Amino acid sequence: MTLPLADMLALVAFLLFVGGAAGVLAGLLGVGGGIVIVPALFAVFSALGHPPETLMHVCVATSLATIVPTSLRSLAAHHRKGAVDWSVLKSWAPFMGAGALLGVLAADRLKSASLMLIFGALAFLVALWMALGRASWRIGEAPPRGWKGAALSAPMGFASVLMGIGGGTFGVPALTLFGLPVHRAVATAAGFGLVIAVPAAAGFVLSGLAVENRPDFALGYVHLPAFAIIVPMTVLFAPVGVKIAHSMDPRPLKLLFALFLAATALNMARKAMGG
User: Fold this and answer.
1) What are 75-125's pLDDT values in tens digits?
2) Distance of CA 214 to CAs 71, 186, 246, Å?
3) Are residues 53 and 59 in contact, defined by beta-carbon separation less than 8 angstroms?
4) For residue 67, what are the contacts with CB-CB under 8 A and spacing of at least 6?
5) E-assigned strands of the chain?
6) pTM of this prediction?
7) How far apart are alpha carbons 85 and 153 in whole angstroms?
């Protein structure tokens, strides 16, 4: 599909903004950038008239691909500060990665509308947590290991892939509920993002290679131009969000973003049901 120069420049500018916003929000609120990137890509590809059969698959896969380099950079930065709980990360990683691969297999068999509905439902629950959750809430004294850890981490990997998000959105609340300080939870969840996104992005590349009705310049389900535009911005602006979080109370912004996310989730669910 060939776009007029003005439309192409507008598209690039929008994706640059999306990447920057995703980076800031990831650093500021501890949520993965995918929760912003997926609906933004959905809006872009819908406006460009891409086939609806694979639309959500491309959005989810491209989002997960962007999470690989950003999570790697974030994890390295947190490691230098000694904030990563490597024992939890190593304990949960195999099960979370397995859940991610199962998520790819499930997504490949689901219709785009089903993925939209799943994203809408889970994103609405995330919005409720952001609006109503409290840092003081606890359900345990330490993150579970063994089969209990597997029972928690595998579904997190599975659900994250179906939404196209990394480890922060589910990982940070889970770890804090089990008594991990929030700064260690955010740092450790950066590793979750890598564990989820690497196998998932590779899986979406392979599963999409033989699929028709994909956008131009897509490798499997991963849209390469969108990936190339978004990644530098998320990497550049994530530290900005961290600095803002340390200089002000992020609670009002968290409430505002929760409202935005809830509206986005409901709108996507409405579209999935043909509204």
Assistant:
1) 888 888 888 999 999 999 999 999 999 999 999 999 999 999 999 999 999
2) 26, 34, 42
3) no
4) 32, 33, 34, 165, 166, 193, 194, 196, 197, 201
5) 218-219, 222-223
6) 0.91
7) 15
